[in-house]
What we know:
Layout: H1 4-29, H2 31-36, H3 46-52, H4 56-76, H5 79-82, H6 88-114, E1 116-118, E2 123-125, H7 131-153, H8 155-160
Antiparallel strand pairs: 1-2
Amino acid sequence: xxxxxxxxxxxxxxxxxxxxxxxxxxxxxxxxxxxxxxxxxxxxxxxxxxxxxxxxxxxxxxxxxxxxxxxxxxxxxxxxxxxxxxxxxxxxxxxxxxxxxxxxxxxxxxxxxxxxxxxxxxxxxxxxxxxxxxxxxxxxxxxxxxxxxxxxxxxxxxxxxxx
Length: 163
């Protein structure tokens, strides 16, 4: 029978997998539908840019390809539910390392793109932040902290070979 600590780890892993699958599926189906939740003014020519623009078209389709990777990563997070000792390394990579870098980049960029320092006046200018990046950054930060904390509290039991 598994301990409460292991059950907490499994809940964190299951939540991470579900969030990865939902986010990946949403971006794979339609990245624009996701961004419409955060942006009120989207250009009418945006769809045309995804078809033939040298910069936007590859970025759009690469985003969809990475969404497929997120879906499969979320599906892979089911494996630690059956054998948490065997798949701890996968939890470190998918639940700690990737969400750490993703949240760091998204939160930092989301705030820094909206708030710029005016060097002449020595003051900040700008009155917006990129809400989509901030929201996804905090979602990945939640996954990072929940997996890291539960891996830490199950560390002693894992060294002893207990589930």
